[in-house]
Design brief:
This protein is an alpha+beta fold and 160 residues long. Helix content is 23%, strand content 31%. The strands form 2 sheets. A 5-stranded antiparallel sheet has the order 3-2-1-9-8, with no helix packed on it. It has a 4-stranded antiparallel sheet with strand order 4-5-6-7. The longest helix is centred in the N-terminal third of the chain and has 23 residues. It starts with a helix and ends in a 12-residue tail after the last strand.
Amino acid sequence: MSLKKVSQVKVDKGFKIWDLIIYGAVLVLVAALFIAVFTTRDTSPLSGVRVSVRDGVFADYKTVFEYNFNDAPTFDGETVEVQDKDGVLTVTVHTHGDGINVVVIDKKARTAKVTEANCRSRRCVQTAAIKDNSSDIHCATHGLKVEPFSYNPDDPFQPV
């Protein structure tokens, strides 16, 4: 850096007014986005669980299991095995290839959690249980999605 540039930086003395205005605007924008994301989440109690699977990377999700806490579960018998014992539904989902995920639904606590998976990452197993309508669980390796849904008795496979 030349001596002329060094002397110019010393004369400028740090931030100019427009720098401060831009930084302030960015700070306000970040704060507004933070507030919007965390205050608009649907934290109502979980009313049902939907499990969907993809056959490939670019394929659409296909619903293979649905359960409303007030009714019996609806599921695809080819890819899903369901066991109901002591108020706990154990749902074993067979995905493409030899993928297996086990989803445990506690009827009394109204929660859903992936407890077992035979993939390498096992991130879905480490994900917290679904307790309300604001979160879901994904297994990218197996193309599995466990999500909450609101139950519509006229069309059980469509969210309200």
